[in-house]
Amino acid sequence: MNFPKKPLTWLITGVAGFIGSHILETLLINNQKVVGLDNFFSGSGENLDRVLRKVGKESWKNFSFYREDIRDRKICNRLCKRSDFVLHQAAVGSVTRSIKDPKFSHDVNVNGFLNILEAVKQSRCQKLIFASSSSVYGNNKTLPKVESVVGETLSPYAATKKINEIYADVYAKTYGINYIGLRYFNVFGERQDPNGPYAAVIPRWINALIERKKVYINGDGKTSRDFCYVKNVVQANLKASLTQNPKAINGIYNVAFGDKTSLNKLFKLIKSELNVEPKMQPIYRDFRAGDIRHSHADISKAKKNIGYRPEYSIKEGIKRTINWYREEVI
Question: Is the pTM of this model over 0.90?
């Protein structure tokens, strides 16, 4: 990654989260100044401590943290005014959670995002990079997924992300802000929480298999996803920020590895890397409401316009993730 010689200031919302903390780590290693915002709803101080141990106290001096909420307009305005780039990662995730509490998901994901847009509009910020989601594709069955073709929305969470994309485009056309939206496809990696009812499948399965607990698969196991290691996502955020390509601005991009893996195959891969006994088999149960059947991204647009080149395959990512869980969690 080619950073300018003079350090820039980056605002990361959701900085203490799984993805946000990895972006923070990379920026500090590259001598950038970072302003971080997080209310610890899903992020944690422990993630920030892990980054500190990675980058060292000297680099840590370039980081300013605010335990605040994106639903607070004043703090959004204050922090955006200081920033060259805004990397918006904060959100209430999970399709299932949004179905149970759609008002909360909307309040944070939409109203909070509007606060960020307003703050960017009034600031010196060069560009807003924000996290969207592959859930926007809804019931569209076309594979691989192309940014311009989406289906009907299947969950409140997907609706919030679709609304974000619409609002970003409106603010670009109406107020002249610059943005890039990144549709994440099933991101996984170190620091992803394996616990709780809304935990993602990979950390949950790794944790269960290490502890010799039951692993559950929703449906028949043929459901597939385009799993993307977190370091690839960090690269996408930074390349989207630093691109000088005018054609890249004010667009939406898939961020994935560009392949699909069934849940059955994923289970076998994790099981193989952990070298657990053959008798460990998954338990199949009903499909989960709001889930799409298959997900596979076309990443050619991101490659062409922002220079995105995912470096880590699912196999390499799983290996790195398992090593981390063995050392840090278990």
Answer: yes
Neighbours of 246 (CB within 10 A): 9
Q: Which residues contact 99 (CB under 8 A, 6 or more apart)?
A: 155, 156, 157, 289, 290
Tens-of-pLDDT digits for all 330 residues of the chain? 788 889 999 999 999 999 999 999 999 999 999 999 999 999 999 999 999 999 999 999 999 999 999 999 999 999 999 999 999 999 998 888 999 999 999 999 999 999 999 999 999 999 999 999 999 999 998 999 999 999 999 999 999 999 999 999 999 999 999 999 999 999 999 999 888 766 789 999 999 998 889 999 999 999 999 999 999 999 999 999 999 999 999 999 999 999 999 999 999 999 999 988 778 899 999 987 767 788 999 999 999 999 999 999 999 999 999 999 988 765
What are the sequence ranges of the domains in the chain? 9-188+229-258+292-311
Which H, E and C letters describe 158-195, residue by residue?
A: HHHHHHHHHHHHHHHHHHCCCEEEEEECCEECCCCCCC
Tell me the C-alpha distance between 164 and 183, whole Å.
11
Q: Find the catalytic residue in 66, 137, 157, 229.
A: 157
Domain 9-188+229-258+292-311 -> CATH class:
alpha beta
Cα 46 from chain centroid (whole Å): 18
Q: How many CA atoms lie within 13 A of 15 on its CB side?
A: 29
Confirm if 156 and 106 have CB atoms less than 8 A apart: yes
Does residue 308 carry a catalytic annotation? no
Retrieve residue 278's tokens: 């053959």
